[in-house]
Write a structure and sequence with these properties.
Blueprint: E1 3-7, H1 12-25, E2 30-33, H2 42-48, H3 51-58, H4 64-82, E3 87-92, E4 95-97, H5 101-111, E5 118-121, E6 136-140, E7 148-152, H6 153-162, H7 173-180, E8 183-188, E9 192-194, H8 211-228
Parallel strand pairs: 1-2, 1-3, 5-8
Antiparallel strand pairs: 3-7, 4-9, 5-7, 6-8
Helix pairs in contact: 3-8, 4-6
């Protein structure tokens, strides 16, 4: 399976960390150059990010680093389409791959239908407290965190159309599922986790909007989605 790791030019130590893990597991990975949000010019932000439409869809302001993360994933989807890959593994560069990751990847590859819009996640975020000892591929309606997942070409096409220019975060899988028919799966037990001790996040937290504004945005977002398809 083709694998990509999204990595900033200024973080070569993260790339070496990921390559060492892949070498330990007997796998290969290709670097994909990430966008650096703090370096965006105003013109670049206008080109890459629909600010007003994004506020309606995301229900809060997206800071440039978060836009850059979403843009990096979106551009990688375009690469998958350009290379006509049936599916690919997408990784961020701050994750720890457990010894069982290679076996989990093989199980996911057997379950993939390249003709369908599928995303398979390998992290356990949101499943804390559950007993997940058995091997399972669970179909779900929502997922969080875009740190390690397999995406099929059809899913890449749909998410790219939905999120370029950037409207929402890279891990808005619930939105892609509900509005764009992307099928979501968790490959369990989780074999990937973020290394928050070694690497600090590049993202910034955004303030949440109030209840009334959030619901108004939700209604406007559905109207605009029906009019524009994104």
């Amino acid at each position: 399976m083709k694998a990509f790791v999204i990595n900033l030019d200024k973080n070569p130590e993260r790339l070496e960390f990921m390559r060492a893990q892949f070498a330990r597991l007997g796998l290969e990975v290709e670097r994909f150059r990430a966008y650096y949000g703090k370096a965006f010019t105003r013109e670049e932000l206008r080109r890459y990010h629909s600010r007003i439409r994004s506020f309606i869809a995301f229900q809060k302001k997206m800071e440039p680093p978060k836009v850059a993360v979403a843009l990096s994933h979106s551009e990688l989807y375009q690469t998958i389409l350009d290379r006509d890959l049936p599916y690919a593994l997408v990784l961020e560069d701050d994750v720890i791959l457990d010894d069982g990751f290679r076996a989990a990847l093989a199980r996911a590859e057997k379950a993939i239908d390249p003709s369908r819009p599928q995303v398979f996640s390998f992290n356990g975020y949101g499943l804390e407290g559950e007993v997940l000892s058995d091997e399972e591929i669970r179909e779900v309606s929502r997922m969080w965190c875009a740190d390690a997942y397999v995406v099929t070409r059809e899913a890449a096409r749909r998410i790219r159309k939905a999120n370029f220019p950037v409207l929402t975060s890279a891990d808005s899988f619930k939105r892609y599922h509900r509005l764009h028919g992307v099928e979501l799966y968790r490959v369990l037990p989780a074999t990937v986790r973020q290394d928050n001790d070694r690497f600090a996040s590049e993202n910034l937290e955004s303030p949440k909007c109030n209840w009334l504004l959030r619901n108004l945005c939700w209604v406007l977002d559905r109207i605009l989605w029906r009019l524009t398809g994104r």
